[in-house]
Amino acid sequence: MLIGLLGRLLAAHKGLVLAIVLLQLVQTTANLLLPTLNAAIIDDGIVGRNPAAIADFGVRMAVTAAVQVVAAVAACYLGAGLAMEVGRQLRDELFAKVQSFSSQEVAEFGAASLVTRATNDVAQIQNLAVLVFTMLVAAPAIFLGGIVLAMQQDLALSGIVVAVVPVLAVIMAVIVRRLVPLYRAGQGLIDRISRVLREQIIGANVIRGFVRQDHEIRRFDGANRELTRNNLHSALLVAGMMPMIMLVVNLSSVAVVWFGGHRIQSGEMRLGALTAFIAYILQILIAIMMAMFVFMTAPRAAACAERIRAVLDTAPAIADGPAPADAGFDGARPGDGTVEFRNVSFAYPGAEAPVLENVSFTAVPGTTTAIIGATGSGKSTLLNLLPRFLGTTAGQITIGGRDIRDLPLATLRGLVALVPQHSYLFSGTLADNLRMGSPEATDEELWDVLTAAQAAGFVRRLPQGLLSPVSQGGTNFSGGQRQRLCIARALLRRAASVCLFDDSFSALDYGTDYRLRKALEPLLRAATVLVVAERVATIVDAGLILVLENGRLVAQGTHHELMESSPSYQEIAASQLVLEDTP
Length: 583
What we know:
There is one protein chain. The chain has about 575 residues and is an alpha/beta fold. It has helices at about 1-10, 15-45, 50-100, 105-110, 110-135, 140-155, 160-200, 205-210, 215-265, 270-310, 380-385, 410-415, 430-435, 445-450, 455-460, 480-490, 510-525, 535-540, 560-565, 565-580, and strands at about 340-345, 355-365, 370-375, 395-400, 400-405, 415-420, 430, 470, 500, 530, 545-550, 550-555. It has a domain at about 1-310: Up-down Bundle (ABC transporter transmembrane region fold), CATH 1.20.1560.10. Strands 6-9-10-3-11-12 form a 6-stranded mixed sheet, with helices on both faces. Strand 9, helix 17 and strand 10 (about 530) form a beta-alpha-beta unit. The radius of gyration is 35 Å and the shape is elongated.
């Protein structure tokens, strides 16, 4: 899986890969020539008392060393750049894939896991890519070249090298085999600790409010200790590999010097050849060390590649419709915003009961359709089906008579202006957040929608006005301020023929709620408006009210009709009147 992933990413960079391979071959060849040239200096120059030979071979060594350095630097530079490009491509692909996921798929992976896969997992593959691009050709070439050239220097001593290589291979194979499951489990433990930490940061006030700090400390400590044990186990294996390899190589070096000395005394070997042979033994060691670094990194990268491929190979449940974006469907035209639900159901995979079942209604332009019901009755789910944040499991939804599944997602969502249940602002400035609704909007248009959303007053009081900074999530604003800013952002979608308000007025006081609804009436006169509401007072003027109960549409009509015919609606209205009358 790792090789397939890297192969696909590198397919567009074949020329650069070839250049790196050629540079590594040049570097390796030059590196292997140096001991032979050094042996010639010793045997022909120093022992043979020939200064001209020393100068001649010395110049050759200097030129060879210079070529080796230039090729090595160039290969490392290109390799590092290509590795960073691989990381960039992977992050881009993961981000694009996650953007195509429905809410259901994001929940299946978990936000913490997706963040870890796009950061830590990609970084591990990037680290391996750096090692591969700097050692891919060099390590095996030095290893094989060192063995061949050592045999050329003295065939008898080469038996030591031949005997040592299988021992080293067995040591590395045993350790790497044990590292793979450890690294795979380690990435899962990183997911777990990220999830725990994220929950504790987001839910800090809840933890303090219920005095659960000690419990959460123990929970985090447990996850932290498991990750530490996993990392310690793998680190000890890696640390133990080095001394074992060094022991084998050093023993082989001692054997080479011992037997080589005897061969020199007997005249069967020259002094320069023994020097070159020792140098090649060291080069073989370097090749083994390079391979060891790759083998240490590869198991972790392989585990990360599995996790990344799991995301990339997931087919989004919500797919683009077959119709082209310009298929003659313009959501800005009057009448095109008619929304119809026909026997719509939705259920999560494996759930005991559907969230929505056989819901049918029609919402027409110029009217407000309100959705009310108890918590968990499926109100927000119903709204999320319209822009296809979730996919229906049965039934049909149409806008302007067109099945939403036949529309490209960009076209469908271009028809919709949405104020989500959880008012979310992005880090940046207020103007940046508002212009998500219309990137070309002028400052005057921004103030117009802020005024309509009853937000212009507090924005004008900010020292920097529209350029005021917004923290992540908009946490430097109150809940009511965030809701009004999100409403202003949605109002900039001038071409939207359908406006969705998912419990968007709950954080507002009654006075602000009333003024806001009055200000919205002329702006949304031509649009089809669907509102999820908690307050009956907010929806008494709605043209159609849908009453949901346990995922079923139990009643629909105007406020007055439902007050006469629907016990469920009467109960909701009565409970709210009691609460409002209670001092």
